[in-house]
Amino acid sequence: MSIPIPCASEGPESMHSVVRGTPGRKPKVKPGLEVFTTGQVAKICNVTIRTVIKWFESGKIQGYRIPGSRDRRIPRENLLAFLEEHGIPYDPSLFDAKPKILVAEDDPAVSRTVIELLSQLEGVEVHGASNGYEAGFLTAQLRPRILLIDYDLGDTNAEEVVFTLERQHQLQDVHVIVMSGFLDRDDCERLEGKGLRVLRKPFDVEAFLAEIRALIPVA
After folding, report:
1. Is 94 a residue whose pLDDT tops 80?
2. Is 2.60.40 the CATH number for 19-95?
3. pLDDT at residue 59 above 50?
4. Domain 100-215 CATH (choose: 3.30.70.360, 3.40.50.2300, 3.50.50.60, 2.60.120.620)
5. Which of 70, 76, 182, 208 has a 20 to 30 A CA-CA distance from 86?
6. Sequence ranges of the domains in the chain
7. Cα(15)–Cα(150) distance, rounded to whole angstroms?
Protein backbone atom coordinates (compact mmCIF):
# COMPACT_ATOMS: atom_id res chain seq x y z
CA MET A 1 0.00 0.00 0.00
CA SER A 2 1.35 3.42 -0.92
CA ILE A 3 0.51 6.45 1.19
CA PRO A 4 -0.14 9.57 -0.95
CA ILE A 5 1.77 12.66 0.16
CA PRO A 6 -0.09 15.87 -0.77
CA CYS A 7 1.97 18.73 -2.12
CA ALA A 8 2.39 21.99 -0.24
CA SER A 9 -0.04 24.72 -1.12
CA GLU A 10 1.10 27.03 -3.86
CA GLY A 11 -1.14 29.88 -2.81
CA PRO A 12 0.31 33.13 -1.43
CA GLU A 13 0.77 33.39 2.31
CA SER A 14 -0.42 36.35 4.37
CA MET A 15 2.27 38.69 5.65
CA HIS A 16 2.90 39.19 9.36
CA SER A 17 5.35 41.56 11.04
CA VAL A 18 7.84 42.34 8.31
CA VAL A 19 11.06 44.19 7.65
CA ARG A 20 12.37 45.17 4.26
CA GLY A 21 15.60 44.02 2.69
CA THR A 22 17.77 47.02 1.92
CA PRO A 23 20.11 47.04 -1.08
CA GLY A 24 23.71 47.22 0.17
CA ARG A 25 22.80 45.92 3.64
CA LYS A 26 22.62 42.30 4.67
CA PRO A 27 19.32 41.48 6.44
CA LYS A 28 19.79 40.56 10.10
CA VAL A 29 18.05 37.39 11.19
CA LYS A 30 18.48 34.95 14.05
CA PRO A 31 20.39 31.69 13.58
CA GLY A 32 18.07 29.03 12.23
CA LEU A 33 17.52 27.09 9.04
CA GLU A 34 20.55 26.78 6.78
CA VAL A 35 18.71 25.47 3.71
CA PHE A 36 15.19 26.32 2.56
CA THR A 37 12.66 24.56 0.36
CA THR A 38 10.85 26.45 -2.39
CA GLY A 39 7.75 26.39 -0.17
CA GLN A 40 9.61 28.04 2.70
CA VAL A 41 11.10 30.68 0.38
CA ALA A 42 7.62 31.35 -1.01
CA LYS A 43 6.29 31.93 2.49
CA ILE A 44 9.13 34.29 3.39
CA CYS A 45 8.74 36.29 0.17
CA ASN A 46 4.92 36.18 0.20
CA VAL A 47 4.71 34.66 -3.28
CA THR A 48 3.64 31.32 -4.73
CA ILE A 49 5.90 28.28 -4.96
CA ARG A 50 5.56 28.53 -8.75
CA THR A 51 7.10 32.02 -8.63
CA VAL A 52 10.07 30.78 -6.58
CA ILE A 53 10.62 27.96 -9.07
CA LYS A 54 10.70 30.54 -11.89
CA TRP A 55 13.27 32.59 -9.94
CA PHE A 56 15.33 29.43 -9.46
CA GLU A 57 15.16 28.32 -13.08
CA SER A 58 16.05 31.79 -14.36
CA GLY A 59 19.03 32.06 -12.00
CA LYS A 60 17.62 35.01 -10.05
CA ILE A 61 17.91 33.02 -6.83
CA GLN A 62 20.78 30.57 -6.49
CA GLY A 63 20.36 27.04 -5.15
CA TYR A 64 20.66 23.40 -6.08
CA ARG A 65 18.60 20.31 -6.86
CA ILE A 66 18.61 17.21 -4.65
CA PRO A 67 20.23 14.43 -6.69
CA GLY A 68 17.71 12.01 -8.11
CA SER A 69 14.71 14.29 -7.56
CA ARG A 70 13.10 17.50 -8.79
CA ASP A 71 13.30 19.10 -5.34
CA ARG A 72 15.12 22.40 -5.12
CA ARG A 73 16.95 23.84 -2.11
CA ILE A 74 18.02 27.44 -1.43
CA PRO A 75 20.95 27.98 0.99
CA ARG A 76 20.37 30.60 3.68
CA GLU A 77 23.11 32.95 2.45
CA ASN A 78 21.73 32.89 -1.09
CA LEU A 79 18.24 33.71 0.16
CA LEU A 80 19.51 36.60 2.27
CA ALA A 81 21.46 37.94 -0.70
CA PHE A 82 18.32 37.73 -2.84
CA LEU A 83 16.24 39.62 -0.24
CA GLU A 84 18.95 42.27 0.02
CA GLU A 85 19.30 42.70 -3.74
CA HIS A 86 15.58 43.10 -4.36
CA GLY A 87 14.52 44.89 -1.17
CA ILE A 88 11.82 42.28 -0.50
CA PRO A 89 9.82 42.64 2.76
CA TYR A 90 10.06 39.54 4.96
CA ASP A 91 9.09 38.23 8.39
CA PRO A 92 12.32 37.51 10.34
CA SER A 93 10.56 34.91 12.51
CA LEU A 94 10.23 32.67 9.45
CA PHE A 95 14.00 32.18 9.58
CA ASP A 96 13.86 30.74 13.09
CA ALA A 97 14.08 26.97 13.31
CA LYS A 98 13.19 24.87 16.33
CA PRO A 99 13.80 21.17 15.81
CA LYS A 100 10.48 19.40 15.21
CA ILE A 101 9.44 15.97 16.40
CA LEU A 102 6.50 14.17 14.83
CA VAL A 103 4.80 11.43 16.86
CA ALA A 104 2.75 9.06 14.69
CA GLU A 105 0.65 6.85 16.96
CA ASP A 106 -2.91 5.58 16.49
CA ASP A 107 -3.53 4.94 20.20
CA PRO A 108 -4.70 8.31 21.62
CA ALA A 109 -3.57 7.51 25.17
CA VAL A 110 -0.07 6.49 24.08
CA SER A 111 0.16 9.48 21.75
CA ARG A 112 -0.74 11.91 24.54
CA THR A 113 1.79 10.32 26.90
CA VAL A 114 4.65 10.45 24.39
CA ILE A 115 3.84 14.01 23.31
CA GLU A 116 3.66 15.15 26.95
CA LEU A 117 7.06 13.57 27.64
CA LEU A 118 8.67 15.21 24.62
CA SER A 119 7.08 18.55 25.46
CA GLN A 120 9.23 18.62 28.60
CA LEU A 121 12.22 19.26 26.35
CA GLU A 122 12.86 22.95 25.77
CA GLY A 123 13.47 24.34 22.31
CA VAL A 124 11.54 21.72 20.30
CA GLU A 125 8.15 21.60 18.59
CA VAL A 126 6.17 18.40 19.04
CA HIS A 127 3.40 17.41 16.62
CA GLY A 128 1.12 14.38 16.44
CA ALA A 129 -0.31 12.16 13.69
CA SER A 130 -2.92 9.47 14.25
CA ASN A 131 -2.52 7.36 11.09
CA GLY A 132 -0.21 6.66 8.17
CA TYR A 133 -1.73 9.28 5.90
CA GLU A 134 -1.24 12.04 8.49
CA ALA A 135 2.27 10.79 9.22
CA GLY A 136 3.23 11.08 5.56
CA PHE A 137 1.50 14.42 5.04
CA LEU A 138 2.97 16.05 8.17
CA THR A 139 6.46 14.70 7.53
CA ALA A 140 6.40 16.32 4.09
CA GLN A 141 4.98 19.58 5.49
CA LEU A 142 6.93 19.95 8.75
CA ARG A 143 10.28 18.41 7.83
CA PRO A 144 10.75 17.07 11.39
CA ARG A 145 14.16 16.24 12.77
CA ILE A 146 12.68 13.08 14.31
CA LEU A 147 9.81 10.90 13.11
CA LEU A 148 8.68 8.71 16.02
CA ILE A 149 6.29 6.24 14.43
CA ASP A 150 4.34 3.28 15.78
CA TYR A 151 4.83 0.16 13.66
CA ASP A 152 1.11 -0.62 13.34
CA LEU A 153 -0.87 2.49 12.46
CA GLY A 154 -4.16 0.83 11.60
CA ASP A 155 -4.39 2.01 7.99
CA THR A 156 -0.81 0.92 7.23
CA ASN A 157 2.49 0.27 8.98
CA ALA A 158 5.69 2.16 9.58
CA GLU A 159 7.59 0.38 6.81
CA GLU A 160 5.05 1.44 4.19
CA VAL A 161 5.12 5.05 5.36
CA VAL A 162 8.92 5.14 5.39
CA PHE A 163 9.12 3.50 1.95
CA THR A 164 6.77 6.09 0.47
CA LEU A 165 8.55 9.03 2.09
CA GLU A 166 11.97 7.77 0.99
CA ARG A 167 10.73 7.31 -2.57
CA GLN A 168 9.55 10.93 -2.54
CA HIS A 169 12.84 12.13 -1.00
CA GLN A 170 11.13 13.40 2.17
CA LEU A 171 13.40 11.77 4.77
CA GLN A 172 16.68 13.58 4.23
CA ASP A 173 18.15 14.39 7.68
CA VAL A 174 15.14 12.79 9.43
CA HIS A 175 15.83 10.32 12.25
CA VAL A 176 13.16 7.60 12.12
CA ILE A 177 12.36 5.70 15.32
CA VAL A 178 9.88 2.83 15.06
CA MET A 179 7.89 2.07 18.22
CA SER A 180 6.32 -1.31 18.92
CA GLY A 181 5.50 -3.69 21.72
CA PHE A 182 5.00 -6.69 19.43
CA LEU A 183 8.01 -6.94 17.12
CA ASP A 184 10.31 -9.90 17.74
CA ARG A 185 14.10 -9.82 17.59
CA ASP A 186 14.23 -10.76 13.90
CA ASP A 187 11.81 -7.93 13.03
CA CYS A 188 13.87 -5.44 15.02
CA GLU A 189 17.09 -6.54 13.35
CA ARG A 190 15.45 -6.31 9.93
CA LEU A 191 14.31 -2.73 10.59
CA GLU A 192 17.65 -1.73 12.03
CA GLY A 193 19.26 -3.18 8.91
CA LYS A 194 17.26 -0.61 6.94
CA GLY A 195 18.73 2.20 9.04
CA LEU A 196 15.72 2.58 11.34
CA ARG A 197 15.91 2.80 15.10
CA VAL A 198 13.56 0.58 17.09
CA LEU A 199 12.01 1.51 20.43
CA ARG A 200 10.32 -1.33 22.28
CA LYS A 201 7.19 -0.51 24.29
CA PRO A 202 6.93 -0.12 27.21
CA PHE A 203 10.13 1.93 27.42
CA ASP A 204 12.16 3.58 30.16
CA VAL A 205 11.33 7.27 30.21
CA GLU A 206 14.82 8.52 31.08
CA ALA A 207 16.47 6.31 28.47
CA PHE A 208 13.91 7.47 25.90
CA LEU A 209 14.51 11.18 26.56
CA ALA A 210 18.27 10.61 26.58
CA GLU A 211 18.05 9.07 23.10
CA ILE A 212 16.03 12.04 21.83
CA ARG A 213 18.55 14.48 23.34
CA ALA A 214 21.34 12.60 21.57
CA LEU A 215 19.62 13.06 18.20
CA ILE A 216 18.80 16.76 18.38
CA PRO A 217 20.32 19.72 20.25
CA VAL A 218 17.76 20.33 23.00
CA ALA A 219 18.04 21.72 26.50
Report:
1. no
2. no
3. yes
4. 3.40.50.2300
5. 70
6. 19-95, 100-215
7. 37
